[in-house]
Amino acid sequence: MTVRKAWIVAGSAVAAGLSFVLVLVIGVYLVAGNLAGGLSGGARNLAKGAVPAAYRALVEKWGNLCPAINPALLAAQLYQESGFNPRAQSPAAAQGIAQFIPGTWATHGIDGDGDGDRDVWDPADAIPSAASYDCTLASYVKDVPGDPKRNMLASYNAGAYAVIKYGGVPPYKETRNYVKTITTLEESFAAPVSRLDPSKQAAGAIAYAQKKLGTLYLWGGDGSAEDGGRFDCSGLTKAAYESVGVTLPRVANDQWNAGPHPARNELLPGDLVFFSDDLGNSRAIRHVGIYVGGGYMIDAPRTGAVIRFDPIDTPDYFGATRVTEDGAKALPTTV
After folding, report:
1. CA 331, CA 181: separation in Å to the nearest integer?
2. CB 52 within 8 A of CB 283
3. Where are the alpha helices (H) located in the chain, listed in sequence order?
4. pLDDT tens-digit profile of 199-231?
5. Could you tell me the end-to-end alpha-carbon distance of the chain, in angstroms, rounded to an integer?
6. What is the pLDDT of residues 283-328, one digit of tens each?
7. For the chain, does the N or the C end have fewer beta carbons within 10 angstroms?
8. Which residue, among 307, 316, 222, has the nearest Cα to 18 in the 3D structure?
Protein backbone atom coordinates (compact mmCIF):
# COMPACT_ATOMS: atom_id res chain seq x y z
CA MET A 1 0.00 0.00 0.00
CA THR A 2 3.02 2.31 0.11
CA VAL A 3 5.25 3.88 -2.48
CA ARG A 4 7.38 1.78 -4.84
CA LYS A 5 10.20 3.15 -6.94
CA ALA A 6 8.78 4.37 -10.23
CA TRP A 7 9.48 2.50 -13.47
CA ILE A 8 8.76 4.86 -16.35
CA VAL A 9 8.29 3.68 -19.93
CA ALA A 10 8.50 6.17 -22.77
CA GLY A 11 5.04 6.85 -24.19
CA SER A 12 5.95 5.80 -27.71
CA ALA A 13 6.92 2.32 -26.49
CA VAL A 14 3.90 1.58 -24.28
CA ALA A 15 1.72 -0.21 -26.83
CA ALA A 16 4.54 -2.38 -28.14
CA GLY A 17 5.77 -3.12 -24.62
CA LEU A 18 2.36 -4.20 -23.38
CA SER A 19 1.81 -6.43 -26.40
CA PHE A 20 5.17 -8.10 -25.78
CA VAL A 21 4.48 -8.71 -22.10
CA LEU A 22 0.96 -10.01 -22.75
CA VAL A 23 2.42 -12.60 -25.12
CA LEU A 24 5.08 -13.33 -22.51
CA VAL A 25 2.43 -13.89 -19.85
CA ILE A 26 0.65 -16.54 -21.90
CA GLY A 27 3.83 -18.27 -23.02
CA VAL A 28 5.49 -18.37 -19.62
CA TYR A 29 2.29 -19.53 -17.98
CA LEU A 30 1.99 -22.50 -20.34
CA VAL A 31 5.67 -23.38 -19.98
CA ALA A 32 5.49 -23.05 -16.19
CA GLY A 33 2.52 -25.38 -16.12
CA ASN A 34 4.47 -28.00 -18.05
CA LEU A 35 7.51 -27.63 -15.82
CA ALA A 36 5.42 -27.94 -12.70
CA GLY A 37 3.63 -31.09 -13.87
CA GLY A 38 2.68 -33.12 -10.87
CA LEU A 39 5.33 -31.92 -8.43
CA SER A 40 4.34 -30.80 -4.97
CA GLY A 41 5.51 -30.67 -1.39
CA GLY A 42 7.87 -28.63 0.74
CA ALA A 43 10.36 -28.81 3.59
CA ARG A 44 9.59 -27.77 7.14
CA ASN A 45 12.42 -25.25 7.31
CA LEU A 46 11.28 -21.65 7.55
CA ALA A 47 10.80 -19.69 4.35
CA LYS A 48 12.80 -16.50 3.95
CA GLY A 49 11.26 -13.69 5.97
CA ALA A 50 8.32 -15.82 7.09
CA VAL A 51 8.98 -14.96 10.73
CA PRO A 52 10.10 -11.54 12.04
CA ALA A 53 13.88 -11.55 12.27
CA ALA A 54 13.81 -10.98 16.04
CA TYR A 55 12.10 -14.36 16.57
CA ARG A 56 13.48 -16.48 13.75
CA ALA A 57 16.34 -18.07 15.73
CA LEU A 58 13.99 -18.91 18.61
CA VAL A 59 11.44 -20.50 16.29
CA GLU A 60 14.10 -22.48 14.42
CA LYS A 61 15.71 -23.74 17.64
CA TRP A 62 12.60 -24.59 19.64
CA GLY A 63 10.60 -25.74 16.62
CA ASN A 64 12.86 -28.81 16.58
CA LEU A 65 12.29 -29.67 20.23
CA CYS A 66 10.43 -32.93 19.50
CA PRO A 67 9.25 -34.91 16.45
CA ALA A 68 5.64 -33.71 16.78
CA ILE A 69 6.53 -30.13 15.84
CA ASN A 70 8.77 -28.25 13.42
CA PRO A 71 9.73 -24.59 12.95
CA ALA A 72 7.04 -23.93 10.33
CA LEU A 73 4.32 -25.43 12.53
CA LEU A 74 5.45 -23.43 15.56
CA ALA A 75 5.51 -20.26 13.45
CA ALA A 76 1.97 -20.99 12.23
CA GLN A 77 0.75 -21.29 15.81
CA LEU A 78 2.38 -18.03 16.87
CA TYR A 79 0.96 -16.21 13.86
CA GLN A 80 -2.52 -17.60 14.47
CA GLU A 81 -2.39 -16.79 18.16
CA SER A 82 -0.97 -13.27 18.11
CA GLY A 83 0.34 -12.25 14.69
CA PHE A 84 3.81 -12.31 16.34
CA ASN A 85 2.74 -9.55 18.73
CA PRO A 86 4.52 -10.03 22.09
CA ARG A 87 2.11 -7.60 23.79
CA ALA A 88 -1.09 -9.26 22.58
CA GLN A 89 -3.82 -9.84 25.16
CA SER A 90 -7.20 -11.43 24.43
CA PRO A 91 -10.54 -10.80 26.17
CA ALA A 92 -10.08 -14.25 27.73
CA ALA A 93 -6.84 -13.00 29.37
CA ALA A 94 -4.55 -14.97 27.05
CA GLN A 95 -1.22 -13.17 27.08
CA GLY A 96 1.86 -12.60 24.96
CA ILE A 97 3.12 -13.85 21.63
CA ALA A 98 1.97 -17.42 22.37
CA GLN A 99 -1.31 -16.41 24.09
CA PHE A 100 -0.98 -18.43 27.27
CA ILE A 101 -3.77 -18.10 29.80
CA PRO A 102 -2.42 -17.57 33.34
CA GLY A 103 -3.30 -21.07 34.57
CA THR A 104 -1.57 -22.80 31.68
CA TRP A 105 1.44 -20.52 31.97
CA ALA A 106 1.76 -21.30 35.68
CA THR A 107 1.98 -25.01 34.84
CA HIS A 108 3.80 -25.03 31.51
CA GLY A 109 5.75 -21.76 31.27
CA ILE A 110 9.52 -22.27 31.23
CA ASP A 111 12.58 -20.04 31.61
CA GLY A 112 13.61 -20.30 27.97
CA ASP A 113 16.47 -17.82 28.08
CA GLY A 114 17.87 -18.94 31.44
CA ASP A 115 17.72 -15.50 33.06
CA GLY A 116 16.06 -16.75 36.23
CA ASP A 117 12.45 -15.83 35.55
CA ARG A 118 9.47 -17.01 33.47
CA ASP A 119 7.93 -14.01 31.74
CA VAL A 120 4.86 -14.64 29.57
CA TRP A 121 5.45 -11.28 27.84
CA ASP A 122 9.03 -12.14 26.87
CA PRO A 123 9.22 -14.07 23.55
CA ALA A 124 12.50 -15.62 24.75
CA ASP A 125 10.42 -17.43 27.38
CA ALA A 126 7.04 -17.65 25.65
CA ILE A 127 8.22 -19.21 22.37
CA PRO A 128 10.20 -21.98 24.10
CA SER A 129 7.22 -22.53 26.40
CA ALA A 130 4.88 -22.90 23.43
CA ALA A 131 7.16 -25.52 21.91
CA SER A 132 7.57 -27.31 25.23
CA TYR A 133 3.81 -27.33 25.78
CA ASP A 134 3.24 -28.79 22.29
CA CYS A 135 5.72 -31.56 23.02
CA THR A 136 4.13 -32.27 26.40
CA LEU A 137 0.72 -32.59 24.76
CA ALA A 138 2.21 -34.86 22.09
CA SER A 139 3.57 -37.14 24.84
CA TYR A 140 0.11 -37.34 26.42
CA VAL A 141 -1.47 -38.61 23.19
CA LYS A 142 1.46 -40.57 21.75
CA ASP A 143 -0.47 -43.86 21.87
CA VAL A 144 -3.59 -42.49 20.20
CA PRO A 145 -4.12 -43.75 16.63
CA GLY A 146 -3.72 -41.33 13.74
CA ASP A 147 -1.34 -38.53 12.85
CA PRO A 148 0.72 -37.44 15.92
CA LYS A 149 0.88 -33.82 14.78
CA ARG A 150 -2.87 -33.53 14.28
CA ASN A 151 -3.52 -35.24 17.61
CA MET A 152 -1.14 -32.81 19.32
CA LEU A 153 -2.90 -29.81 17.77
CA ALA A 154 -6.29 -31.20 18.74
CA SER A 155 -5.01 -31.60 22.30
CA TYR A 156 -3.90 -27.97 22.27
CA ASN A 157 -7.43 -26.90 21.38
CA ALA A 158 -9.68 -29.45 23.11
CA GLY A 159 -7.44 -31.08 25.69
CA ALA A 160 -5.60 -34.37 25.65
CA TYR A 161 -8.48 -36.16 27.37
CA ALA A 162 -10.82 -35.48 24.43
CA VAL A 163 -8.26 -36.81 21.95
CA ILE A 164 -7.77 -39.97 24.02
CA LYS A 165 -11.53 -40.40 24.47
CA TYR A 166 -12.28 -40.22 20.74
CA GLY A 167 -9.17 -42.03 19.57
CA GLY A 168 -7.96 -39.05 17.53
CA VAL A 169 -9.15 -35.57 16.61
CA PRO A 170 -12.50 -35.20 18.40
CA PRO A 171 -15.69 -34.37 16.46
CA TYR A 172 -15.76 -30.77 17.59
CA LYS A 173 -16.12 -28.21 14.81
CA GLU A 174 -13.86 -25.69 16.54
CA THR A 175 -11.13 -28.27 17.11
CA ARG A 176 -11.22 -29.61 13.57
CA ASN A 177 -11.11 -26.08 12.19
CA TYR A 178 -8.13 -25.30 14.43
CA VAL A 179 -6.23 -28.37 13.26
CA LYS A 180 -6.93 -27.54 9.61
CA THR A 181 -5.99 -23.89 10.08
CA ILE A 182 -2.62 -24.59 11.69
CA THR A 183 -1.63 -27.37 9.30
CA THR A 184 -2.61 -25.18 6.35
CA LEU A 185 -0.75 -22.14 7.67
CA GLU A 186 2.25 -24.38 8.30
CA GLU A 187 2.69 -24.66 4.53
CA SER A 188 2.88 -20.87 4.21
CA PHE A 189 5.75 -20.65 6.69
CA ALA A 190 7.75 -23.55 5.21
CA ALA A 191 10.48 -23.18 2.60
CA PRO A 192 9.45 -25.18 -0.50
CA VAL A 193 11.75 -27.77 -2.04
CA SER A 194 9.96 -28.24 -5.36
CA ARG A 195 7.58 -26.59 -7.77
CA LEU A 196 3.83 -26.53 -7.20
CA ASP A 197 1.17 -26.62 -9.88
CA PRO A 198 -0.22 -23.32 -11.12
CA SER A 199 -4.00 -23.08 -10.97
CA LYS A 200 -6.88 -21.90 -13.09
CA GLN A 201 -7.58 -19.45 -10.28
CA ALA A 202 -4.12 -17.93 -10.72
CA ALA A 203 -4.80 -17.47 -14.43
CA GLY A 204 -8.13 -15.84 -13.63
CA ALA A 205 -6.52 -13.46 -11.15
CA ILE A 206 -4.01 -12.38 -13.81
CA ALA A 207 -6.81 -11.85 -16.32
CA TYR A 208 -8.63 -9.62 -13.82
CA ALA A 209 -5.51 -7.54 -13.17
CA GLN A 210 -4.85 -7.17 -16.91
CA LYS A 211 -8.27 -5.60 -17.35
CA LYS A 212 -7.32 -2.94 -14.81
CA LEU A 213 -4.13 -1.83 -16.60
CA GLY A 214 -4.09 1.94 -16.92
CA THR A 215 -6.38 2.53 -13.90
CA LEU A 216 -5.19 5.36 -11.67
CA TYR A 217 -3.87 4.39 -8.23
CA LEU A 218 -5.86 5.27 -5.09
CA TRP A 219 -4.44 4.74 -1.62
CA GLY A 220 -6.87 2.48 0.25
CA GLY A 221 -8.78 1.78 -2.96
CA ASP A 222 -10.68 -1.49 -3.30
CA GLY A 223 -12.06 -0.89 -6.78
CA SER A 224 -15.52 -0.05 -5.45
CA ALA A 225 -17.86 2.50 -7.00
CA GLU A 226 -17.05 4.82 -4.11
CA ASP A 227 -13.38 4.52 -5.06
CA GLY A 228 -14.11 5.20 -8.71
CA GLY A 229 -12.94 1.69 -9.60
CA ARG A 230 -9.43 2.52 -8.40
CA PHE A 231 -7.06 0.42 -6.26
CA ASP A 232 -3.95 0.48 -4.16
CA CYS A 233 -1.48 -2.44 -4.36
CA SER A 234 -3.10 -4.87 -1.95
CA GLY A 235 -6.58 -3.76 -2.97
CA LEU A 236 -5.78 -4.89 -6.52
CA THR A 237 -4.39 -8.28 -5.49
CA LYS A 238 -7.31 -8.86 -3.12
CA ALA A 239 -9.86 -8.02 -5.82
CA ALA A 240 -8.05 -10.12 -8.43
CA TYR A 241 -8.20 -13.25 -6.29
CA GLU A 242 -11.69 -12.46 -5.03
CA SER A 243 -12.81 -12.55 -8.67
CA VAL A 244 -11.91 -16.27 -8.74
CA GLY A 245 -13.36 -17.15 -5.35
CA VAL A 246 -10.34 -16.71 -3.07
CA THR A 247 -10.67 -14.13 -0.30
CA LEU A 248 -7.39 -12.58 0.83
CA PRO A 249 -6.85 -10.27 3.80
CA ARG A 250 -6.73 -6.57 3.02
CA VAL A 251 -3.10 -5.60 3.59
CA ALA A 252 0.06 -6.82 1.89
CA ASN A 253 1.90 -8.17 4.92
CA ASP A 254 -1.06 -10.40 5.80
CA GLN A 255 -1.42 -11.59 2.20
CA TRP A 256 2.14 -12.93 2.51
CA ASN A 257 0.81 -15.88 4.52
CA ALA A 258 -1.90 -16.98 2.07
CA GLY A 259 0.12 -19.95 0.82
CA PRO A 260 3.63 -21.41 0.44
CA HIS A 261 6.61 -19.28 -0.59
CA PRO A 262 8.34 -20.30 -3.84
CA ALA A 263 11.93 -19.20 -4.41
CA ARG A 264 12.71 -16.62 -7.09
CA ASN A 265 13.63 -19.32 -9.62
CA GLU A 266 10.40 -21.21 -8.86
CA LEU A 267 7.96 -18.37 -9.55
CA LEU A 268 4.89 -19.07 -11.63
CA PRO A 269 2.37 -16.59 -13.04
CA GLY A 270 -0.26 -15.79 -10.45
CA ASP A 271 2.17 -15.79 -7.51
CA LEU A 272 2.00 -12.69 -5.34
CA VAL A 273 5.34 -10.87 -5.14
CA PHE A 274 6.27 -8.67 -2.19
CA PHE A 275 8.64 -5.79 -1.46
CA SER A 276 10.05 -4.39 1.75
CA ASP A 277 12.81 -2.20 3.17
CA ASP A 278 13.40 -4.83 5.87
CA LEU A 279 14.13 -8.13 4.12
CA GLY A 280 14.09 -10.06 7.39
CA ASN A 281 10.59 -9.16 8.60
CA SER A 282 7.36 -10.12 6.86
CA ARG A 283 5.43 -7.64 8.99
CA ALA A 284 7.38 -4.81 7.32
CA ILE A 285 6.19 -5.70 3.78
CA ARG A 286 4.90 -2.54 2.09
CA HIS A 287 4.07 -3.49 -1.51
CA VAL A 288 2.59 -6.41 -3.45
CA GLY A 289 1.94 -7.26 -7.10
CA ILE A 290 0.82 -10.24 -9.21
CA TYR A 291 3.61 -12.04 -11.05
CA VAL A 292 2.93 -12.55 -14.79
CA GLY A 293 6.17 -14.20 -15.93
CA GLY A 294 9.43 -13.09 -17.47
CA GLY A 295 10.46 -11.09 -14.41
CA TYR A 296 7.39 -8.81 -14.50
CA MET A 297 4.34 -8.19 -12.35
CA ILE A 298 1.13 -6.20 -12.62
CA ASP A 299 0.87 -3.78 -9.72
CA ALA A 300 -0.67 -0.55 -8.51
CA PRO A 301 2.53 1.33 -7.69
CA ARG A 302 1.84 4.68 -6.02
CA THR A 303 -0.20 7.86 -5.94
CA GLY A 304 -0.12 9.53 -9.33
CA ALA A 305 0.71 6.33 -11.20
CA VAL A 306 -1.51 3.81 -12.98
CA ILE A 307 -1.79 0.04 -12.73
CA ARG A 308 0.96 -1.25 -15.00
CA PHE A 309 3.68 -3.84 -15.62
CA ASP A 310 6.77 -3.46 -13.42
CA PRO A 311 9.95 -5.54 -13.05
CA ILE A 312 10.27 -7.49 -9.83
CA ASP A 313 14.05 -7.82 -9.61
CA THR A 314 14.77 -4.77 -7.47
CA PRO A 315 16.80 -4.47 -4.25
CA ASP A 316 13.61 -4.38 -2.17
CA TYR A 317 12.23 -7.69 -3.52
CA PHE A 318 11.16 -9.66 -0.44
CA GLY A 319 9.72 -12.91 -1.76
CA ALA A 320 6.58 -14.51 -3.13
CA THR A 321 3.46 -16.39 -2.08
CA ARG A 322 1.63 -18.98 -4.15
CA VAL A 323 -1.96 -18.29 -3.18
CA THR A 324 -4.01 -21.34 -2.27
CA GLU A 325 -7.67 -21.38 -1.31
CA ASP A 326 -6.99 -23.32 1.88
CA GLY A 327 -4.12 -21.00 2.74
CA ALA A 328 -6.29 -17.93 2.38
CA LYS A 329 -9.08 -19.51 4.45
CA ALA A 330 -6.65 -20.36 7.23
CA LEU A 331 -5.56 -16.76 7.75
CA PRO A 332 -6.75 -15.27 11.05
CA THR A 333 -9.24 -12.43 10.69
CA THR A 334 -8.30 -10.60 13.88
CA VAL A 335 -4.57 -10.06 13.33
Report:
1. 8
2. yes
3. 14-36, 53-62, 71-82, 102-108, 123-140, 148-158, 160-166, 173-189, 200-211, 233-242, 252-255, 325-330
4. 889 999 999 999 999 999 999 999 999 999 999
5. 17
6. 899 999 999 999 999 999 999 999 999 999 999 999 999 998 888 8
7. C
8. 307
